[in-house]
Write a structure and sequence with these properties.
This protein is an alpha/beta fold and 238 residues long. The chain has 2 domains: 124 residues, 3-Layer(aba) Sandwich (Rossmann fold); 100 residues, Arc Repressor Mutant, subunit A (Orthogonal Bundle), CATH 1.10.10. Helix content is 42%, strand content 20%. It contains 8 helices and 12 strands. The strands form 3 sheets. It has a 5-stranded parallel beta sheet with strand order 2-1-3-4-5, with helices on both faces. Strand 4, helix 4 and strand 5 form a beta-alpha-beta unit. Helix 6 crosses helix 7 and helix 6 crosses helix 8.
Length: 238
């Protein structure tokens, strides 16, 4: 069965361009021209990845992303934007997008990003499926991570995490006590070169802290190591 890509964009020329090139790369492509239709198809068609434009009629890309995440639909999302605006990029990531690209772009670049996201997702699934111990979990303070379930609990409360947030948390936990640079995290979690755009790591770290730290300004789990990166450690006091 072919990998299914949902392309949501209101510009017919872009839809046609992406559909042709993605199909030539071996993907099964379905399309939508507005946000409402895109959300409906994401719910009904269960695509493997969504290429989602930011500026859409009826329902914009931000709202589509937000609503899908609220419905626990964690399909990876590559967001497209015509605005080279840092705020738009960061907001999209905060709402649960896995990556973003600024128009204009080359079809080859889109395909490379899609492949990278899907490869990372598949690697995580294979790692989970290969774990013979169904009860395997990682415990760090009040944090419990269940790799085979893609779930994490804090104080026995289920955390609402995007796929990328979960992958980042799991990677930090697997390297507990070790300082991980932003570039290392980019390579390990996003699995390709962001050309030095490490802000994506900072955004996801901030999101994780909001969910597991009592005081995000004085974190006890995810520590910032100035000039180096981050590390997840066992809190000294609970």
């Amino acid at each position: 069965m072919k990998t299914k890509v949902l392309v949501v964009d209101d510009e017919q020329s872009i839809v046609t361009l992406l559909q042709y090139n993605l199909e030539q790369a071996g993907y099964d492509v379905i399309t939508a021209m507005d946000g409402e239709e895109g959300k409906r198809m994401a719910e009904l068609e269960a695509p493997d990845i969504i290429v989602l434009d930011l500026m859409l009629p009826k329902l914009d890309g931000m709202e589509v992303c937000k609503q899908l995440r609220q419905e626990k639909i964690m399909t990876p999302i590559l967001m497209l934007t015509a605005k080279d605006d840092e705020l738009d990029k960061i907001l999209g990531l905060e709402l649960g997008a896995d990556d973003y690209m600024v128009k204009p772009f080359s079809p080859r670049e889109v395909i490379a990003r899609v492949k990278a996201i899907l490869r990372r997702t598949q690697q995580l699934k294979e790692a989970v499926d290969g774990d013979s111990d169904e009860g395997a979990q990682i415990n760090i303070g009040k944090l419990k991570i269940y790799p085979e379930k893609y779930e994490a609990l804090f104080s026995d409360q289920l955390l609402e995490l995007t796929l990328k947030e979960f992958e980042l948390l799991l990677y930090l936990a697997q390297n507990k006590g070790r300082v991980m640079t932003r570039d290392q995290l980019l390579s390990a979690v996003w699995n390709y070169d962001f050309a030095g755009d490490t802000r994506i790591v900072d955004v996801h770290i901030s999101h994780l802290r909001e969910k597991i730290e009592a005081d995000t300004k004085k974190p006890v789990y995810i520590k910032t190591i100035r000039g180096l990166g981050y590390k997840l450690e066992e809190p000294k006091q609970e």
